[in-house]
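Minutes, project huddle
Topic: does the predicted pose make sense with flavin mononucleotide bound?
PN asked that the exact inputs be recorded in the minutes so nobody has to dig through chat later. Recorded below.
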Amino acid sequence: MKKLVAYYSLTGNTKKVAEAIYEVLPEPKSLTPLTEVQNVDDFDLIFIGFPVHSHSLPYKVEAFLKNLPSGKKIALFMTHGSIPGTRLSMEAMEQALVLSGGNKVLGSFSCRGKVSPQALEVLGKSPEHELWTEMAVTAASHPDRHDLEDAKTFARLVMLEANQ
Ligand SMILES: Cc1cc2nc3c(=O)[nH]c(=O)nc-3n(C[C@H](O)[C@H](O)[C@H](O)COP(=O)(O)O)c2cc1C
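Predicted holo structure (tokens), as shared on screen:
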């Protein structure tokens, strides 16, 4: 089974999680920024990672999901500044799940990701970002080693599902 870990990451948090997932996958496997993926048809199982941007999916991730051929086995992972379980962090994953409707989603994983103090200061001034930027202060140490261990366990579980 050929595996692809495709990630979209502007400041490196989602990339760290992607690398942790990639590390525990057996060969054959590939790790590629989502914008550089050539041909998804080459792969049987695709992990797709993204950050939450303005409560939703970054546009490029939305386009990638919309263009996926149906019937693929996929797994989704996400990083976000807001507190886990709040609507602010869940909406983007829900959106990704809806867009993945034609595919077999074997699992999803999310953890927090830090936002630079400079970005927090600028974004926090806009009413649209006020709520999550308040929460994001406590995301400053994430993804931490526990998040990365959890991501590895998630990847192993997805592999078990994929092999069934
Ligand atoms: C422009 C921008 C908008 C963001 N919007 C949200 C948001 O709506 N909700 C949230 O929880 N986090 C938000 N974040 C925080 C990111 O989701 C978080 O820092 C993520 O880990 C970044 O991943 P990356 O380093 O892979 O790009 C935003 C970050 C940026 C830069």
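Observations noted during the meeting:
- Residues 109 and 118 are 27 Å apart (CA to CA).
- The first strand starts at residue 3 and ends at 7.
No decisions taken; revisit at the next huddle.
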